[in-house]
Design goal:
The protein is α+β, with helices and mostly antiparallel strands. The protein contains four helices and three strands; from the N terminus they run H-H-H-H-E-E-E. The chain has a domain of about 90 residues. The chain is about 45% helix and about 20% strand. The protein has a three-stranded antiparallel beta sheet. A hairpin with a 4-residue loop joins strand 2 and strand 3. The termini are far apart.
Length: about 140
Amino acid sequence: MSAKAKISGLGKGRRAVLVSGDRRRHHRRHHRRHEDFAVEGIQEMGADLSRSFAKLRKRCKARRLVAAIRHCDRRAINEIFEWRCRAICFFRKPGFDCVKISCCFGRGSAFVTFDICVRSLNRCCGFDGGFRNGFF
């Protein structure tokens, strides 16, 4: 059987807690002086990108983004994703039109780059739309 003992008083355990508590407070103060802007940037990134993608739930915004990607309209994409994100380049994959978007957060200490691809309407854009061998 196991027995639990309860010890009270001014023993070693109590002094050790005070010493380690002082060290923790000093440690926390030390880190406040050296803030990591990348952590701040990642937090901003989460909030900003979730807001931007939430806008795309509206059909008109989604249509606008799809049209901008298909027509390589950099200005329209930049307006949808606001000032922190920019359309870097447009490219095509077989059967898809794509855009590469880069966003900067946290005083330039955190970057995210992502691609958005939509099905191409033109099946003869140098790739035959990815449909060969008489499938379509």
